[in-house]
Design brief:
The chain is of the alpha/beta class. It is built from five helices and five strands, in the order αβαβαβββαα.
Amino acid sequence: DLSMENVGPWSPYLMFVAIDVEKHGDWEGGSRENRIARVGEAVTRVRELGLYPVIYTNWSSWQEMLGDTQAFAGMDLWVATMDDIADKQARWVPNGGFNIGGEQYSATSVEGHSLDLNVFESSLLDARKAEVQARRLNLSPPPPPPAPPAPTPVPPEIELRVANLEGRVRS
């Protein structure tokens, strides 16, 4: 929910929400069953929000964190291969009939900024574009802009000084 709060009004435009399954600090200390349950909770919550979940991972993280689970079979994966080949062909796919929806195949630096290079299956993107369009059509109109602030009352002594100055300018 915190991620969605950060997205704010842009959530209807999201094509998917990636659930990051990688080695992170305290993730590694919990049991495999707990990690599988947590990923499952994230998948469920994304769906409850009316959005499409995708799992982002790489071979070593998946193996270490989730093992051979088939709990997420049939989901789209965004796989980090870092093999410098933009072919959407993961050399590894977890057990359970996953779809390779995207591949992060390289990272580079542009003008001192790190940049990850990705490719996605057009069928995944086309389906998600249709969902985004449907969400956008069902949006309620935006709220009206806030009323302008009430003018600050001018103290009487300032009004008197302004009137005196205006009188001098006219004469």
